[in-house]
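Propose amino acids for all 650 sites.
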């Protein structure tokens, strides 16, 4: 097979051709800047796609649950199980220190892409959908470890926060992709939830092709060292020849299970409760509590994730420039706690779309300020223990995060009990309430005993009279008089409705002109001749005066009530039964939901508060001045070692 030659700092060496290099994923030499940036960018792209796949269901959760007849509780428990499985996968992904990172990522993307494109859209039962979703969670648990390990491998500590800022944009941009695609396609292009998964699956398969062809990783000898600055590349390659990889990997979890690793992993996991709540239930919360449409809810998500992504990148750059992590983590943790309180207080009000968008954007800035420096500091804390066990340290974080999310998703339905009726029965109750608004208004006028009697025997005369009395507001005697008159004097009542009242009164008083006008009105109304119209007017004059008074004062109201009662009787029994069974619980849930969500967001607030002191155990300086002095001292040592290495080579 043909080879080409390239030149780098160590001289000329053969490079395999393109096709043969696909199966050879390890780099035996630390890459030049262009290749390094390309690998970092590719890892970020793959991470974005994987999180897009993992979160796509949140953008269409209400529609998805309704279509698959899945209760909210069933959905939340399935998410908890997926995170539990992801926790186990995170532990297994710790083997990436021994077996490598790229194969976990490449073939993980292949599996999820196929499931997203063909499996989930064709799921016709909730069991199949949940099973496939759990497989997605399994892969995501491994990627959570493998991809940040790759970012660490290709980024020295100087510049680590920027690199991790890009990586942490993965889950954020994945969430943004969900919101953007849903916002742009749900109204017209892909109105069904299946379309969202098909688009996502196509993107996932494209990412697999890119990763399969181009993704690489450092050899164990290179990645198992601590690298502070790119200037150390020559030293790293020289040391790699003498590293005993097997010895450095002995008892991996025993080397990593220490307070600085465990407590910091727990702290960030608790802070991220608010993030995972937004990912899984953001659309549900915004639709059921604030009454936003699905499109509006995803639009607010656009603001949230876009601002978060920008904050991650900017804060990462500033953190690297100042060479400190802890001040940013503390500022971010405190800021997140403050914004969570503001957000939860709005739950019992009716804020505007732009108000909510502003609040979630400021919350996103705070989370971005904390997370990118934390990722850099955590990998540096792990490196201080053993740089060869980076994936193991990240596996401990992945395990901790998934356990926290697993527990949270099991607890949430017990705290926010109102969401189940709002999500499960709310949409149909709302649709029926809109469709039968007039009929429900009629039903609301009926006494419970009357409604029950009508359901038992809708043709019973006494029950009908009572119902008409309650609907019209007339007494039972007045209604009975109108009903009797309408039965005994049916033709006369019809005639009465054909003549205006003023003309009729004058005609009854003997006014000849009024009588002629009344006959003309009757003839026109019924399309009959004058003789027959005259007979009808004569027949009307024979109706008792008391009956005419009853018809004049109550007839119109009773007739209107009769029409309303008839419309109510035309509503399908199944629809009325559903409303009777669930309308009250949905109304109660709608009232309780804001307060219950407030309780949950107080839990998220507590997580943000706990995060702040947890950062104290991590590596890194508080003062930029002291951090700069440390860097200068390290550079002096590196310069001395490089001089010695070059002298030895000479």
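Proposal:
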């Amino acid at each position: 097979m043909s080879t080409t030659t390239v030149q780098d700092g160590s001289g000329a060496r053969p490079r395999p051709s393109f096709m043969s290099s696909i199966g050879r994923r390890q780099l035996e030499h630390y890459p030049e800047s262009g290749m390094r940036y390309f690998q970092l960018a590719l890892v970020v792209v793959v991470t974005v796609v994987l999180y897009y796949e993992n979160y796509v269901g949140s953008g269409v959760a209400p529609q998805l649950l309704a279509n698959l007849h899945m209760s909210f509780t069933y959905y939340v428990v399935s998410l908890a199980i997926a995170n539990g499985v992801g926790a186990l996968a995170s532990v297994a992904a710790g083997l990436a220190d021994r077996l490598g990172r790229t194969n976990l990522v490449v073939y993980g993307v292949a599996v999820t892409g196929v499931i997203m494109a063909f499996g989930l859209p064709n799921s016709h039962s909730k069991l199949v959908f949940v099973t496939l979703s759990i497989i997605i969670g399994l892969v995501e648990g491994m990627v959570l470890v493998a991809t940040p390990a790759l970012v660490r491998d290709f980024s020295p500590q100087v510049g680590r926060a920027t690199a991790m800022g890009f990586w942490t944009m993965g889950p954020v941009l994945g969430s943004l992709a969900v919101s953007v695609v849903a916002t742009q396609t749900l109204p017209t292009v892909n109105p069904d939830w299946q379309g969202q998964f098909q688009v996502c699956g196509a993107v996932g398969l494209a990412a697999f092709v890119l990763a399969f062809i181009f993704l690489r990783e450092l050899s164990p000898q290179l990645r198992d060292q601590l690298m502070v600055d790119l200037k150390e590349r020559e030293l790293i390659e020289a040391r790699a020849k003498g590293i005993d990889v097997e010895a450095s990997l002995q008892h991996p979890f025993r080397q990593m299970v220490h307070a600085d690793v465990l407590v910091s992993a727990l702290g960030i996991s608790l802070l991220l409760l608010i993030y995972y709540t937004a990912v899984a239930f953001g659309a549900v919360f915004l639709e059921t509590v604030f009454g936003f449409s699905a499109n509006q809810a995803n639009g607010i998500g656009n603001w949230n994730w876009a601002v978060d992504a920008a904050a991650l990148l900017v804060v990462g750059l500033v953190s690297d420039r100042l060479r400190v992590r802890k001040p940013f983590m503390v500022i971010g943790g405190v800021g997140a706690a403050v914004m969570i309180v503001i957000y939860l207080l709005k739950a019992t009000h009716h804020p505007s779309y732009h108000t909510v968008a502003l609040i979630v954007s400021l919350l996103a800035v705070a989370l971005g300020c904390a997370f990118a420096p934390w990722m850099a500091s955590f990998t540096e804390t792990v490196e201080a223990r053993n740089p060869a066990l980076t994936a193991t340290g990240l596996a401990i974080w992945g395990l901790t995060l998934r356990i926290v999310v697993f527990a949270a998703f099991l607890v949430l339905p017990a705290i926010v009990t109102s969401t189940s009726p709002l999500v499960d029965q709310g949409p149909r109750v709302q649709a029926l309430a809109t469709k039968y608004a007039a009929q429900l208004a009629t039903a609301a006028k009926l006494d419970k005993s009357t409604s029950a009697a009508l359901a038992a025997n809708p043709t019973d005369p006494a029950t009908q009279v009572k119902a008409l009395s309650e609907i019209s507001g007339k007494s039972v005697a007045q209604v009975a008089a109108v009903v009797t008159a309408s039965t005994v004097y049916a033709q006369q009542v019809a005639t009465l409705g054909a003549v205006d009242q003023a003309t009729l009164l004058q005609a009854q008083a003997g006014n000849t002109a009024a009588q002629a006008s009344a006959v003309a009105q009757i003839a026109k109304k019924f399309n009959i001749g004058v003789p027959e119209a005259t007979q009808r007017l004569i027949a009307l004059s024979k109706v008792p005066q008391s009956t005419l008074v009853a018809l004049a004062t109550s007839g119109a109201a009773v007739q209107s009530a009769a029409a309303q009662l008839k419309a109510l009787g035309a509503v399908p029994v199944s629809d009325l039964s559903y409303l009777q069974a669930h309308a009250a619980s949905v109304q109660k849930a709608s009232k309780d939901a804001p307060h219950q969500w407030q309780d949950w967001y107080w839990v998220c607030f507590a997580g943000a508060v706990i995060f702040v002191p947890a950062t104290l155990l991590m590596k890194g300086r508080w003062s930029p001045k002291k951090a700069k002095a440390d860097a200068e001292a390290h550079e002096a040592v590196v310069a001395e070692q490089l001089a010695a290495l070059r002298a030895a080579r000479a």
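Residues 626-650 form one domain. The chain has three domains: 28-228+256-431+584-619, 437-583, 626-650.
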